[in-house]
Amino acid sequence: MTEVPGHSSPDDCANPDGDDESLRPGPLWRHALWVVGVTIPGVGMGWFGASFRFGPDEFGIPLAVPGQVWPYVAAWAVTGLTAAAALRAVAARVPLHGLEALVILFTFVGTRLSLGHRPEPPVLGAMTAVVLTAAALWCGLALHRARRPMSG
């Protein structure tokens, strides 16, 4: 790996060119911070979206229904952390595109739908499985693409 001007080592800058599809090397603490840093906004935006409505009530998903929100928030935080950790682990080895958007979007939508409809545990488990499967497929496709010889 080549050294980036202005940085003491290649690991000093996770994405030196600003290219969204590049390797993301670095120490473990940086990966862990990234995982938490993309999960919290997704869950937070979902919670905020379920708490306030700026348009008429007859449009969109219902606001958060009364009752416990913590089990749903916790479920989506764990789901987001798991998906983000898997994506970041693969991104440290092969170029992977759209990590942040994928995690934030899935945790936002999952949290928002869960707080608006309060699904039963089997439905919540199915929603979680869809998100984790999508993250695994994203990782698998990136690994397959990186392993495939370049034709040209």
What is the percent of helical residues?
55-70%
Distance between the termini: 24 Å
Largest sheet: none
Q: Report the radius of gyration as a whole number of Å.
A: 18 Å
Shape: elongated
Structural class: mainly alpha
Strand content: under 5%
**What is the averaged pLDDT score?**
81
H/E element order: HHHH
Catalogue the unreliable spans: 1-20
* Helical run tally: 4
Q: Total number of β-strand segments?
A: 0
What's the short story on this structure?
With 152 residues, the protein is mostly helical. The chain has four helices and no strands.
General description of the model:
By secondary structure, the protein is mainly α. Helix content is 61%, strand content 0%. It contains 4 helices and no strands. The two termini are 24 Å apart. The N terminus is likely disordered.
Describe the structure using short key phrases.
152 residues, mainly alpha
Secondary structure topology:
Elements: H1 28-51, H2 70-91, H3 99-117, H4 121-147
Helix pairs in contact: 1-2, 1-3, 2-3, 2-4, 3-4
